[in-house]
Design brief:
Protein name: Cysteine desulfurase
Number of strands: 17
Family: Belongs to the class-V pyridoxal-phosphate-dependent aminotransferase family. Csd subfamily.
CATH class of the domain at 74-317: Alpha Beta
CATH superfamily of the domain at 74-317: Type I PLP-dependent aspartate aminotransferase-like (Major domain)
Strand order of the largest sheet: 4-10-9-8-7-5-6
Structural class: alpha/beta
Shape: globular
CATH architecture of the domain at 74-317: 3-Layer(aba) Sandwich
Organism: Microbacterium pygmaeum
EC number: 2.8.1.7
Cofactor: pyridoxal 5'-phosphate
Strand content: 15-25%
Oligomer: single chain
Length: about 450
Amino acid sequence: MPSPTRSPILDAAPRALDPLAVREDFPILSRSVGGQPLVYLDSAATSQKPRQVIDAEVSFLTRENAAVHRGAHTLAAEATELFEDARATVAGFVGAQPEQLVWTSGATAGLNLVAYAIGNATLGRGAPASARFALAPGDEIVVTEIEHHANLIPWQELAARTGAVLRHIPVREDGTIDLDAAASVISDRTRIVAFTHVSNVLGIVNPVVELVALARSAGAITLLDACQSAPHLPLDLPGLGVDIAVFSGHKMLGPYGIGGLYGRREVLEALPPFLTGGSMITTVSLDSAEYLPPPQRFEAGTQPVSQAIALAAAVRYLDAVGMDAVHAHERMLERRLREGLRQIEGVRVLGDPATRSGAPTVDRVGLAAFDVAGVHAHDVGQLLDSRGIAVRVGHHCAAPLHRRFGLTASVRASTALYTTNDEVDLFLDALSGVRAFFGATE
């Protein structure tokens, strides 16, 4: 496979992040919208892709394209090597070993995989070790009030299928998880604690170590949604102590249709499979089958080969920039964004620490969701779009959290490594005139 497209970013030694240099690698950022330069502030929904990622996928499809693990010919061998090299690269990015990383089509698929595998264990399917995951009526699954629907609905469904009880940990007005409440919600009946590393609405980095400790003291397994942390923070999943974690490629400069599921070895080895079919078996008769060890046990059927290779290119790009530098840059943007929003009359920022006296300082990524008094979120978004500014509007797949704050929708601005100070300022300037434009200044 040819070397990926080079750039000053990839050739430079570790340094402070220069977003203007980074932007040279992202073709879409040079386009205009409605006659205005694009200001892309919707990276929490999906990130833009550098040339290195685009080129990696195109190169595979035009040079090595073949089914992996299935052939003895040259293309099949090359494709398999690239596919497994991609697994090792992406696993290393989150601190894991290759055998601890299962390819999925995205984080939602990974969460459903785990929920259905636990459901299969509850039905007595799988090896004897699977019994440790079986749920009985009255057992408890704990989530938080801030979860994305993808880390809520699968657990609702699992509870309905097994008779388990779904409980939640509340969030304070400043957006932080109430750890005192968590200590009372997590009990000796708790079997699963599932929570997000970073809220896609609040941007707060949640206390993973503390929640893992509470779950472990109850004998529960932990599942971490790392979709909003993997693109923005240095990530060491084994170091965090979680049992399982999921992340999504398209949010971390990679393509659509690819994600990762990390699991501790003993957890993956004990879980029964969910999807079954080709490629995940050792022997098959007309009456029964035996399955490969993880990760292949969970990878039935045709795999997302070109996407995995492109995701590995995205990970190499992020590594070259440096995740410490990425986080420092976005943390600076987040402060600029939040302080600017506070200065605009009629704007309420969700999860603002100013709402609680003595609120602890928390780490955040570069996003903020807010409400504009008297103006619907969709109207705000359309007006910003007319200025070339892309933001997210709606409940961001976190409807219960919005109801917690008395809203049905909000506007969300989110940054990435390619976002500049000038873009944040253009956004704040455009937003400052929204209420006057809609006659909502009274």
